[in-house]
Automatic annotation (TrEMBL), chains A, B:
InterPro entries: MTPAP-like_central, NT_sf, PAP_assoc, RL. Residues 1-23, 511-533 are annotated as: Disordered. Its cofactor is Mg(2+); Mn(2+). It comes from Sarcophilus harrisii (Tasmanian devil). Residues 392-435 form the PAP-associated domain. The gene is MTPAP. Transmembrane segments: none annotated. GO terms for molecular function: metal ion binding; poly(A) RNA polymerase activity. The keyword Transferase applies. Keywords: Magnesium, Metal-binding, Transferase. GO terms for biological process: RNA 3'-end processing. This is Mitochondrial poly(A) polymerase. Residues 140-297 form the Poly(A) RNA polymerase mitochondrial-like central palm domain.
Length: 533, 533
């Protein structure tokens, strides 16, 4: 799809903060509209153009039809707001909060014909994934197809930034120079459709102002309330913002204030966008990790391709789970992929230390005594000489970790080399910034064994499948084969709620057999559509 | 004091809403500063002038020295804010909320000399009141002196509007077109120094916008949260504002959310201004009552003079109390004064019905099916032909209610005539707007008896004192005599915490005897100072 291509070509050159800045600014010019089922797109756009030029728009389904409209100027929104009403129901009373989230009414809904195309915002069904893979040309093609199906779409990214921006309006009411930025999978290029939206409330710019204006014998301060610790301040601020979301926040439901967590947060679901949101504050290291992954993900297309395959595989094999526990996490797996790619010769991507060596003065960054410095300018990292194809790399990945000496070595992407394990945890992956921490501390021995076992099994399946393609196969092959439930783990699988998956897969296998007689292109087309938008 | 004179002459002509508008606008150009003890006034003003012209300023004491600065332009405040800091303590962490309430630091406090005059914001001591009255020339002069001592000063009025305006900033963060206005004694011209600050959160302007812009087939509404009742909405909004005051509101302490009251409210104390504040919402009838009293109070100077005397007398005789109970209220007493003045011939002030007959179209006002219509333009009410002096009127007031047939008649300022009592409550004063309600429902038989008894006693004392003046007296006389604890009620008095009053009075009587030998002017001057500012 054109839009995404542009995005990727341009963001390649952009630094993480440039990209964030551009997206934020775009979101601030955008609005969210909940629409009736039948909506005449052209008429609506014509109507909205009264308030200014529209540079972009799309529709999507989430508890009803919604539209995102991007104006070319912020002023247009003020003009639209000026022409909008607070609804006054007979039996319902509004909390008259004026946001950039509107509700559109048609004066005569009956005689309207809907002509809108909805962009998909939710993660695809396993069945559709496997179907798409079976129709691919090669394992390499399968891996790239999988990434295309799973990765965030341009629209979904816009929607994530818009949602942050809407929440920022609520926070900024009290803290004018605060910002709310997405972090984690929404921005690190490894996010998949349907992943949570992690929000970062940044209060640091507040009070940074006018540090120069101190001449004269007077020093003017704001009269403020004080609390004994920064944590306490964060808890108070998040607490009140939580109250506001709960009471005013249009579309914000099931707001939970989890203020006593190590990192205090407000969790809520933003119905209109369909995102599960976690709002935290002053969580700077997490933002830096997002930037690091963004850099690795943007450096070489193989990094993301491989990560998506490995993570999807792990999920299908219930090596990861949505329930916290002794499972591997997507973050751990991504770091393992990065480490593996650093270890290739020639390396596909450089070590974190070499990214640090490329850093200039303005990249310097120390957070809580942790050195988080690394180059931000992607153009200063020279492309890899490694030419291996992603299918080879995937196979090698499984082989590499199928035989990794987890018992004595730790995984360290800062050095790009394995190190001696500092403790006896089954698997030790050094946190790239808080280097005394093991990001896979939670993983127990049996989960590690399952991982190793399945990695070997998968390496073997891929070897065996080499060269084979959809033309000759009547059942899942290549990457698709890796995504089928592996027999020994059925029971475990059921626990992690994969009953319906295997169900879906049974149906699927039949449908494939049936289709294999028809022209595969038909299904391929269906697939391509479902991977688009 | 010049300032107050101007105020009174000009506000006489202003309608209630004009006055409110002017005061609000003045408050929005003003800031509050907490200052160190020693502060060089001239230097400070010179420093602040960097940000724009200062049209008015004063200092006062409340948990330390504070200043109110009124700029001629709002922009000056933005400029000052831009040059101000969020303080960063070592052990204290700020909630970085930027308001118009500042804290001033001196770079070298040592070598500063304070040259500020503080304006008094608190109610005078009984002893000082009685002293001032004893030094007056006549009973008429006593009555006017008492009013001057007790009434709100120009500075105190400014401070009340500024406090509302600071709270409005917090509410307006979420409800941009909401306003917070003072009502009740702060604005009805009957308030005395130290009285509570009643605030009215007005959300009605919200959603009033753009009722015209409905052409085209689309109707754009804000997406809002809805609740099943207006009361519920009010509770939610006040609840969140309460949270904000508690967590961010500079100087707002002991915030209580009393949301299940008949009229939900948030009670808090604003330390810097020293006001006890009650924030309610959509309490329109109360605002209308304030306007009515404002009109009666502004029509004829004798109304306020008499009301202040009667209310001060009632308080001293513990006919009223700060504790809710079966006592008369200041509001009831004020209505009784108004009624009494309507009953004179010729009347001093017109009935509410005749004020209604003078109303024009834009004065029309119906609230919850109660007709609250009356003329807003004071110039359309012609002055009274009654020429009685306030001392005569006070005496007559006591005689009138000393002999009023409370058993069969009700007090009705709408008609300006007594009516038959609709029920058997000891005293029945019709609520001027919710005409089916008795505003003195709470008063029991024994309290009424005390009132009647003391009214007669007081009428008698005033008769006896006729013509007497400070020249010849060595102990409290005239109005002062009425304010001394009356023997029969000592016991009751003690309960209502007047122990220390009588104490003060004993000391006072001695001091007066002592002074009576000296030139009375000396004390008179002292008095005048304490009544000023």
């Amino acid at each position: 799809m054109g839009m995404r291509k542009d995005l990727q070509e341009t963001t390649k050159k952009k630094t993480f903060s440039e990209m964030q800045k551009e997206r934020r600014e775009q979101a601030q010019r955008s609005i969210l509209i909940s629409c009736p089922k039948k909506i005449p797109e052209k008429k609506l756009l014509k109507h909205l153009c009264q308030h200014g030029d529209i540079t972009n728009h799309f529709f999507f389904e989430s508890f009803g039809l919604h539209a995102v409209i991007e104006f070319s100027k912020k002023e247009s929104i003020a003009s639209l707001q000026d022409a909008s009403f607070i609804p006054r129901g007979e039996t319902e009373f509004p909390i008259p909060f004026k946001s950039r989230f509107f509700h559109l009414n048609l004066k005569n809904p009956s005689n309207q014909t809907s002509d809108v195309q909805c962009s998909n915002q939710s993660s695809p069904l396993n069945a559709n994934i496997i179907k798409a893979l079976c129709n691919a040309e090669s394992v390499e093609n399968q891996i790239n197809t999988l990434m295309k199906i799973l990765q965030l779409t341009e629209e979904n990214i816009r929607l994530r930034y818009l949602t942050c921006s809407l929440i920022e309006d609520i926070a900024a009411a009290y803290f004018p120079s605060c910002t709310i930025k997405p972090f984690g999978s929404s921005v690190n290029t490894f996010g998949k459709l349907g992943c949570d939206l992690d929000m970062f409330l940044d209060l640091d710019d507040i009070g940074k102002n006018s540090t120069t204006k101190t001449e004269g014998s007077f020093l003017m301060e704001y009269q403020v309330k004080n609390v004994p610790s920064e944590r306490w301040a964060t808890q108070k601020i998040l607490g009140v913002i939580g109250e506001c979301l709960d009471n005013f926040g249009p579309g914000c439901v099931s707001v939970q204030k989890i203020l006593n967590a190590r990192c205090p947060l407000v969790r809520f679901s933003h119905q209109a966008s369909g995102f599960q949101c976690d709002l935290t504050a002053n969580n700077r290291i997490a933002m830096k990790s997002s930037e690091l992954l963004y850099i690795y993900g943007s450096l070489d297309s193989r990094v993301r391709a491989l990560a998506f395959s490995v993570r999807c595989w792990a999920r299908q094999q219930s090596l990861t789970s949505s329930i916290p526990g002794s499972w591997l996490t997507n973050f751990s797996l991504t770091i393992m992929v990065i480490f593996f790619l650093q270890k290739r010769s020639p390396p596909v991507i450089p070590s974190l230390d070499s990214l640090k060596n490329l850093a200039d003065v303005k990249d310097k960054c120390i957070i809580d005594n942790n050195d988080c410095t690394f180059v931000s300018n992607l153009d200063r990292i020279k492309p890899s000489e490694n030419t291996e194809t992603v299918d080879t790399l995937l196979c090698q990945f499984f082989e590499y970790f199928g035989n990794f000496p987890f018992n004595k070595n730790s995984i360290n992407i800062r050095k790009g080399k394995e190190q001696n394990k500092p403790d006896s945890s089954p698997i030790y992956i050094q946190n790239p910034f808080e280097i005394s921490l093991n990001i896979s501390r939670n993983v127990n021995e049996s989960q590690l064994e399952r991982f190793v076992h399945l990695a070997r099994e998968s390496a073997w399946i891929l070897q065996e499948n080499k060269g084979q393609s959809s033309k000759t196969s009547t059942e899942p092959w290549g990457l698709a084969a890796l995504l089928l439930p592996s027999v020994p783990n059925k029971s475990k699988a059921k626990k992690a709620g994969r009953g319906q998956t295997s169900e879906a897969v049974k149906k699927l296998l039949e449908s494939i057999k049936a289709e294999s007689t028809k022209d595969p292109r038909a299904t391929r087309k269906k697939t391509t559509i479902s991977t688009q938008s």
